[in-house]
Write a structure and sequence with these properties.
The complex is a heterodimer. By secondary structure, chain A is mainly α. Helices cover 78% and strands 1% of the residues of chain A. Chain A has one domain. Chain B is built from 11 helices and 4 strands; from the N terminus they run H-H-H-H-E-E-E-H-H-H-H-E-H-H-H. Classes of the chains: A mainly alpha, B mainly alpha.
Chain lengths: 321, 289
């Protein structure tokens, strides 16, 4: 039956892959306009702590908490993003790194509110809450042949999958829209883009804020999946890890973030021996990628090649009929 | 009390200034920010621990060992992470990402090699102190201050008066022109990165002496402070690094004295953001288009 096929551990790993894909996308969308943000861990913390504090202290519904987290991360994104326009690429990276550390130091030091370094535990679990709601209207996971905890892991996975699919569709379409083209024009040459009538300020802040909101969303979901967060989850290491997802997978295309996050999340899970040396491997990967393939494993050329092959096969299919 | 805090601030500030010098040198010549500098510095600090505390050898040997190890690390950094990226027009972010890779690698390597957590630093100097009036001064503080000043003077002299320094400044001004005029720019770049790393390594030992504790994560926090200082003082500016270091050291001591020690590490970051917004070229920098 379905119940035997579902292993909570696999579902948990799959859920983390999906959250990491959202994080990879947050780097992708900021890099699309030529901006490197090292503050993703900070924005993630803003999202996570906002919803965690709202839902545990004020019993706000999860949806409202998560949305509040995303909005607040977005507001911080605008606040950090607007002044950063004056900064060249490298300085922006450092300013965002500074932002991430300020957020972390602030969380550690406001013990009365955030419980400092200990972290917040007992955050309502996403799957649990959904199950409770469903049980009120008389649903029982036994109908599907599932135990309660299997159902909660499954529903979380499905929900995250839907969110990721929506986001991937959105950003793939945005890439070829007016907005996406403006981003890549700014990425290529800011002055040329400005002289072509592109509002550089608007689009740069837009791309930065989109990245911040995505990171905030990932953070909020992370809090409700794990139901425990602490400042140690949002350090510089996390920011570098998120950067590696995108840089390794490919920072030019949406598929790159998906591949990078999936591959690099599965790697330490499948090869336990590697897990301990994870960050050393990330470091080597970053250096090697920059030297030999700065655009990442998956680039636009590769995507085009895939599309051509698919197109050809479809043509053959019609001819044979 | 006030004077003691002032001396503490100056000691800390002079160490920060040396850390910042490493960034300034590399930025001045290559125009990139070497994110791995903090971790190379941390390796220097660990050499101090290994030589003096673990092996029980004299302090001067620690300086030699730190200089050698960090020189090797600097060479490898240039050879493996920076040179392959040079002369490629595609991205100005590539060297930044590449050195971030080196930094995270070195930090975790140190964690594996030396073990995580704090490592105490002991040497013959750490307890010695004397009192002038009501002010208690540690000998270490004077040693640190003197070494920092000597290092700054030596570096300034080398940059301004010697042929090697002239070649370095020429390369910093314009790589292509310097190369046309017969400067071996490849070597100058190598010398710069190695020199910056060695200075970082020496700063590492001084930090070990001043704070009597070393850990693998210190590279990041000191590295970010170094970055804050060069942003404050102006990129590629030796004088700016000195003044910036003093300002940061003194303001941190002030914040601790006022009782907000938890926020001590945040000052550097707040400084980065404020300076980048108000005066992106730094206190001593000149505006560029």
């Amino acid at each position: 039956m379905l119940g035997e096929l579902i292993n909570p551990y696999y579902l948990q790993v799959a859920s983390f892959i999906l959250i990491n894909i959202i994080l990879g996308l947050s780097i992708y969308v900021t890099l699309a306009s030529g901006q490197l943000s090292l503050g993703s861990a900070g924005f993630m913390a803003v999202g996570a702590y906002t919803t965690a504090l709202l839902t545990t202290n004020f019993e706000v519904p999860l949806l409202v908490g998560i949305l509040a987290g995303v909005m607040l991360a977005g507001i911080f994104g605008i606040i950090v993003g607007i002044p950063s326009l004056r900064l060249r690429g490298v300085f922006l990276a450092i300013a965002t790194l500074g932002f991430g550390e300020i957020v972390r130091v602030f969380i550690v030091n406001t013990e009365s509110l955030t419980k400092g370094a200990i972290g917040i535990s007992g955050i309502p679990q996403l799957g649990r809450e959904i199950l409770d709601k469903l049980e009120v209207i008389g649903f029982d996971p036994e109908i599907l042949g599932l135990k309660a905890n299997q159902f909660t892991f499954l529903i979380v996975f499905i929900l995250l999958l839907i969110i990721v699919i929506v986001l991937v569709c959105f950003f793939s379409r945005q890439k070829n829209s007016r907005v996406g083209r403006a981003f890549s024009a700014i990425n290529m040459d800011e002055q040329a883009a400005a002289s072509m009538g592109i509002n550089v300020t608007y689009y740069k802040v837009l791309s930065f804020t989109q990245g911040a909101m995505l990171a905030g969303l990932a953070g909020a979901l992370y809090a409700h999946v794990l139901s425990y967060i602490s400042p140690a989850d949002f350090t510089y290491h996390k920011a570098v890890e998120i950067l590696t997802f995108s840089v390794f997978g490919g920072s030019e295309v949406v598929g790159g973030a998906i591949f990078g996050a999936t591959f690099l999340t599965l790697l330490p899970e499948t090869l336990r021996a590697i897990s301990e040396y994870r960050y050393m491997i990330y470091g080597i990967l970053l250096v090697v990628m920059m030297a030999y393939r700065p655009q990442g494993v998956i680039d636009e050329q590769m995507m085009r090649w895939f599309k051509r092959r698919k197109g050809r096969r479809q043509q053959h299919g019609t001819e044979n009929k | 009390m006030f004077l003691e805090q002032l001396i503490n601030g100056i000691t800390t500030g002079s160490i920060y200034a040396i850390v910042a010098l490493g960034y300034t040198l590399v930025f001045g010549v290559l125009g990139i920010i070497n994110m791995a500098h903090g971790e190379i510095f941390m390796f220097g600090a660990f050499m101090g621990v290994v030589i003096t505390s673990t092996l029980g050898l004299p302090l001067w040997l620690a300086f030699v060992a730190a200089a050698v190890i960090t020189a090797i690390l600097g060479y490898l950094l240039e050879r493996l992470a920076l040179r392959p990226l040079r002369n490629r027009p595609d991205s100005h972010l590539a060297p930044l990402i590449s050195t971030i890779g080196v930094s995270i690698f070195l930090e975790n390597l140190a964690d594996k090699l030396f073990g995580s957590g704090n490592h105490p630093v002991q040497n013959s100097l750490s307890e010695a102190s004397f009192t002038i009036g009501s002010v208690n001064i540690y000998v270490v503080q004077i040693v640190i201050f003197c070494i920092s000043i000597a290092l700054m003077i030596a570096l300034s002299y080398w940059l301004l008066k010697t042929k090697g320094g002239k070649a370095l400044r020429a390369t910093a001004e314009n790589l292509e022109t310097a190369s046309l005029l017969g400067v071996n720019t490849k070597r100058v770049i190598m010398v710069t990165v190695v020199l910056a790393s060695v200075i970082g390594g020496i700063a590492g030992i001084l930090v070990g002496m001043a704070f009597s504790s070393v850990n693998p994560q210190m590279g990041l926090s000191f590295g970010l402070k170094g970055l804050a200082i060069i942003i404050l003082g102006g990129m590629g500016n030796v004088k700016g690094a000195m003044v910036g270091g003093m300002i940061l050291g003194l303001s941190e001591t002030l914040v601790v004295a006022l009782g907000y020690s938890g926020y001590r590490d945040a000052i550097a970051f707040i400084m980065i953001i404020v300076i980048l917004l108000l005066r992106p070229q730094g206190l001593f920098g000149t505006k560029t288009a």
